[in-house]
Amino acid sequence: MQKVYTKIESIVGNVVTVRAEDVRLGDLALVGDSYATVIKLDNDIVSLQVFAGAQGVGTRDTIRFLGRPMMVSFSENLLGRIFDGTGVPRDGRPALTENMIEIGGPSFNPSKRIMPKNMIRTGIPMIDVFNTLVESQKLPIFSISGEPYNALLSRIALQAEVDVIILGGMGLKYDDYLTFRDTLEKGGAMSHTVMFVHTASDPIVECTLVPDMSLAVAEQFALQGKKVLVLLTDMTNYADALKEMAITMEQVPSNRGYPGDLYSNLAARYEKAVDIEGAGSITVLGVTTMPGDDVTHPVPDNTGYITEGQYYLKDGHIEPFGSLSRLKQNVNGKTRNDHRALMDGMIRLYSQYKEALEKKSMGFLMSDWDMKLLKYGELFESGLMDLSVNIPLEDALDLGWKILADCFEPNETGLKTDLLKERWPDKTAVM
Amino acid sequence: MENVMGRVTGINGNLAKVAFDGAVHKNEVGYILVDSKRLKGEVIRINNGIASMQIYEMSNGIKVGDPVEFTGELMSVELGPGLLTQVFDGLQNPLPNLAEQCGFFLERGVYLDPIPDRNWDFTPSVEAGDPVEAGSSVGYVPEGIFRHEIFVPFTLKGEWTVKSIKAAGSYHVRETICVIENARGDEKELSMVITQPIKQPIKCYAERLMPDEPLITQLRCIDSFLPVAKGGTFCVPGPFGAGKTVLQHMEAKNSEADVVIIAACGERAGEVVEVLKEFPELDDPKTGRSLMERTIIICNTSSMPVAAREASCYTAVTLAEYYRQMGLHVLLLADSTSRWAQAMREMSGRLEEIPGEEAFPAYLESTIASFYERAGKVRLNNGKIASVTIGGTVSPAGGNFEEPVTQATLKVVGAFHGLSRERSDARKYPSIHPMDSWSKYTGVVDMELVEKARAVLRRGNEVNQMMKVVGEEGTSDEDYITYQKGELLDAVYLQQNSFDPVDAACSPERQKLEFACLYEALMASYSFRDKKEIRAFFNSLRQEFLDWHGDLFGTPEYEARQNKIKELYMSGIKEA
Question: Which residues, 6 or more positions from B532, have their beta carbon under 8 angstroms from its beta carbon?
Fold first, then answer.
């Protein structure tokens, strides 16, 4: 019953319209040989968004409606494979067509969620100690262009103890894509990784499909009881693709040209992060590049309202201020008894170091205490903040005590006496 | 009434255009029939014989020609016993029941009965022949700790008399318990469940009163400095990460309201889960029963369909008004009204209306105003005083309070609790900015003294700014003392540790006592040799106050500490 239409009425941007009947919203169609999806119906006028872009589409091209929405194949065979935004293999291996599932499915029932309670260890002290990543958390890395966010992302992917890694690349530079692939292959993680990659030169519509493809697959793995880590880089490109499509469709822009439903669109994706009662979980780690390091830009701003904290990557390290993991309280009480106190204490001292640094640059008198803080700040930055440091949580905590002991007297740290007695490296120093 | 039918002629996102035969009303509910599923929608515009419907579900799969069924009824909720403790979505669908039926995901087109299917012990309070009207009570059932009144529907017009009423006993919630008739001989059967359109305020009360009684939240910073009144309104704008939701949860836990309704509107699902898992374990400070027994959660999280988000705030406020009719004090916490406004913006865009500022519709302000105006303290027809208090969070883009939603909200609320990123970065919680925020209500301590204390805070802040330029060494001892006083007030009174079991909730009596004590310490004039001594003095004073917050109110330790604090600040004066 597949009917072929050959009279395209209009072609504007990536949208073509055709007169057709019995077409459902969201259905897939073939315009020539590229896929398109139905985005609007008005009587018999059907508007189609062409994935590959409408370049070269002619008014006499054939349109075939497939009578089904956008789908992706799901099976164990996905592992180790690389696809583009529409699910076409990028790795030269055969396409998968078995067990097709819909993408962009319904939202998870909140009453079936459970409180996140497992820590994901990354070996990065700024994450493990100070802003612990928690299973089922949704967390973006706020960064500016040029920061090593993709390197950080692949390092977390390699070191995190998860069953499946799904990488959704949006607007990636081709060499970034190759770096990701090689890093994961070298690290031996490729066998449990699925990649959906849209590179900067690919059609813009495909970019907006990447998160949905990645998360639909992640959801299926999670329902099977797998711990899934989804990496999305870069969500700003995704938002920009939405903006481009909205503007060409003459939608009223809301803020700096972004469509009014940017928040809902981002939220629908990030909210797929879930810990399922009696099954697996999805953790979403995204990258949001901030144009001009401006956190009030619509993309990071809307993202911040959706996600459970953020890692703020600046000058090559994760900033202690500005970074936040909202779920850390759920887990850091159970790791080691000194974790919370040490975390708070060290950050407090670090902020005093920043003040001392400011004082120094203003040319005020430096007291003994200021000198101690300056020494502490340096040790803290090189020992714990440097991204190349790779130690387990326990060692990082021990290192923290050592740094404190190198710089301060026990009673200067503001930590409770019984904790100092237990953990201070030189026991004789604690009365 | 015969159902009007229609056909879909166009669809764009969640806006469907429908051609129809017969009469269709604006804001009436219709169902689009897709693949044997009925998708709920609301008529929001009728133009040239075509009705535009916003669909409360995902609209994928709808095609031109799909049949539409109009109900002739406005978007409504069902009100009856058993609403408390429940978790609904924006359309009053009970989520746990939905999960039982549909599994992990929210399947569209499934609408379940919001009122639990069970029997209640009914006691009549009228007899045959008694006159009744809209909002009259015909009897009551015990719902948890409350006497749940059974009302004549609030939308009923004219005067009616009771024709028959069931004797006391156990009846099913949907069973007819009362029949009323009017002068024309029309009869109406009443069960324990009534329906109420969500956009129509319930106005069956004698008069609206001034909100002049504080609503205790047990947060020092609010009750003493920025009070909220029963029947008043307040808003909490703040950038992300400033602690809006934590603050609302604190208010939900510790406020002295009878019923708390939490509307999680377009926010994270995880936060609702926290409430869901935590509240049943906690005790109501007023009754000692589980907190959940006084709570209703309306949860339309950010990933759920946008149109239903718009409805969720109205659903919540209608439930609040319903419990107010029973003589209760209800607190409605909406998190966040910005998401609600954004839902309006999305719809307005699809309707191709002329956009206002930041593409919000021109009617944004009037819609926000009429929502907050549904709060109020009232004297009911039976003389009881009851109230609905509305507190809404606002999530301004970029943390900039100049944006339309914050500004429209500020025009209509009675208290403004602005959260500041600076304070939350410095881990000063609750991060309500003490100087920028304001309240028009009266709090638990003498407002004149509060103003004086606030002046100390302001002056201390000025000195602090100055000190950043001239350094500590360039500041006079007197100014330095003022600065320390301001810091002391901030650290020991405005800040409160929500994780500490004792400090998390501070009763009004305790607030009065501690404020008086702190006030004396703030107003005293001290004299010290140098800044080092000043710093040491205030550090120890702060430490004592902080430890005091950990002592249980009224215990000997508490009093001992109070005396110790007094001695301490007296010692500072003596040296003068």
Answer: none
Angle at B555 between CA B552 and CA B558, to 5 degrees: 70
Q: Do A263 and B17 touch (CB under 8 A)?
A: no
Q: Does the pLDDT of residue A65 top 60, yes or no?
A: yes
Cβ <8 Å between A24 and B62: yes
For residue B468, the enclosing domain spans 447-574
Do B349 and A115 lie within an 8 Å CB cutoff?
no
Question: Angle CA(A80)–CA(A135)–CA(B90) in degrees, nearest 5?
Answer: 110
Tell me whether B96 touches chain A (CB under 8 Å): yes
Q: With an 8 Å Cβ cutoff, are B12 and A296 in contact?
A: no
Q: Do B9 and A267 touch (CB under 8 A)?
A: no
| B95 to chain A: closest CA residue | A111
* Residue range A256-283, pLDDT digits in tens: 889 988 999 999 999 999 999 889 999 9
> Among A221, A254, A352, A358, which would you mutate to test the B interface (most chain B Cβ atoms within 10 Å of its Cβ)?
A254
d(C-alpha B417, C-alpha B414), whole Å: 10
Query: CA separation (Å) from A82 to A160, A195, A220, A377?
Result: 20, 5, 18, 43
A324 shares contact with chain B (CB less than 8 Å): yes
- Cis status of the peptide bond prior to B500, with omega within 30 of 0: no
Query: Could you tell me which residues come within 8 angstroms of residue B218 by beta carbon, excluding any fewer than 6 positions away?
Result: B254, B255, B256, B285, B504, B505, B506, B507, B508
Query: Where a domain ends, among B415, B439, B463?
Result: B439
pLDDT digits (tens, 9 = 90+) for A20-53: 988 999 999 999 888 999 999 999 999 999 998 8
A-chain residue closest to B94, CA distance: A111
d(CA B60, CA A40): 10
What residues in B contact A359, CB-CB < 8 Å?
471
Task: Over range A165-172, report the average pLDDT.
Answer: 95
User: B574: pLDDT confidence band, cut at 50, 70 and 90?
Assistant: low
Over residues B140-153, the pLDDT tens digits come to: 999 988 999 999 99
Q: B466-496 burial string, b = 16+ CB within 10 Å, else e?
A: ebeeeeeeebeeebbbbbbbbbbbbbbbbbb
pLDDT (mean) for B68-77: 93
Alpha carbon of B269: minimum distance to chain A alpha carbons (Å): 6
Structural domain contains residue B251: yes
Q: Residue with structure tokens 């194949």? A: A73
Rg over CA atoms, chain A: 25
Last residue of a domain, one of B405, B421, B439: B439
Hey, which of A359-363, B253-257, B383-387 has the most confident mean pLDDT? B383-387
Nearest to B305 by CA among B573, B2, B60: B60
Domains of chain A: 4-69 (2.40.30.20), 72-331 (3.40.50.12240), 339-429 (no CATH)
- In angstroms, the first-to-last Cα distance of chain B is 87
The residue length of chain B stands at 576
pTM reported for the whole predicted model: 0.92
Mean pLDDT, residues A373-387: 93
Do B392 and B530 belong to one domain? no
Q: Are residues B154 and B239 in the same domain?
A: no
Q: Which residue of A15, A18, A28, A109 is the best one to mutate when testing the B interface, meaning the one whose CB has the most B CBs within 10 A?
A: A109
Check if A309 contacts B (Cβ < 8 Å).
yes
Helix (H, G, I), strand (E, B), or coil: what is residue A136? coil
Whether A355 and chain B come into contact, CB under 8 Å, resolves to no
Q: Is B358 on the interface with A (CB under 8 A)?
A: yes
CB pairs A-B closer than 8 Å = 177
What token pair was written down for B71?
A: 């109900």
- Kind and range of the H or E run holding A157: helix A149-159
Instruction: Residue window 512-551, chain B: list those with CB within 8 Å of chain A.
Output: none
Mean per-residue pLDDT, B359-375? 94
